[in-house]
Every structure is written in C-alpha cells, then in structure tokens.
Write a structure and sequence with these properties.
The protein is an all-beta fold and about 130 residues long. Helix content is about 0%, strand content about 45%. The strands form two sheets. Strands 2, 4, 5, 6, 9, 10 and 11 form a seven-stranded mixed sheet that branches. The radius of gyration is 14 Å and the shape is globular. The model has no long low-confidence stretch (mean pLDDT about 95).
C-alpha cells in the first residue's frame, strides 16, 4: 500500500515563497504521473499542477502559471511544488496525488480528480495580506 505525505506548508506573507514536498512510502512513484490539487472550505478541490512520470512534461492551472513550479526527484521518491509570489487567494489545503497507471504522459485527463487513485492527507498553506 502506498502512502503519500505532504509537508512544507505554513503561514507566509503575500509575495513570499513556500516549497511543498510529497514523499511516498510503500511504493516507488517513479513510474507515476503526479499532481498537486488544493481546496478551500466550501469549494471544490481544484487542480494546481502535474508532472509526467519522467519529469519531462509539466502542466499548470492558469491561476498559478508563472508562479508555481512542479518537479520530481524519482531517486528520492518525492514530488515538489515551489510556490513563489504567493497571494492570499492561494490559501488552501494542498494535496498530492498519484496516478498509478504507469508511464502516463500528461493528457486531457491530467487536471481531473478521478484520474488519481492515491491522495495524501494535505498540508495547509495560509497567505496573509
């Protein structure tokens, strides 16, 4: 059984930066497409960013494009989300997710929640104005 554990969340002022990490235990993620989603109370969970199994392709929501960078280190079984120029609207619980169908490239289903079969518990990011 695979477990995804997010870390790196916290409180930051607008304009600041945070780096989230998602570490996998129990199974290697090196062959899996990985993604970050976020959710605020009363709203649907929304897609943030995704990376192909190799790390060669990335895809971002328009709201974070140019500010966030997703990356992975398959040797460390970890995916990262570097968040720069943070805004109060970025405040949310951030979730890591894995698509366990192996060797998937980014595709039309990349931003869909049902694509991903494993989820972490989330890490809170709060951006103050």
């Amino acid at each position: 059984q695979m477990q995804l554990v997010e870390s790196g969340g916290g409180l930051v002022q607008a304009g600041g930066s945070l780096r989230l990490s998602c570490a996998s235990s129990g199974r290697t993620i090196s062959r899996y497409r990985m993604a970050w989603f976020r959710q605020t109370p009363g709203k649907e969970r929304e897609f943030v960013a995704a990376v192909s199994w190799s790390g060669g392709s990335t895809y971002y929501a328009d709201s974070v494009k140019g500010r966030f960078t997703i990356s992975r280190d398959n040797a460390k079984n970890t995916v990262y989300l570097q968040m720069n120029s943070l805004k109060p609207d970025d405040t949310a619980v951030y979730y890591c997710a894995a698509d366990t169908r192996i060797y998937r490239q980014l595709d039309t289903d990349t931003s869909t929640q049902s694509t991903y079969s494993y989820w972490g518990q989330g890490t809170q990011v709060t951006v103050s104005s």
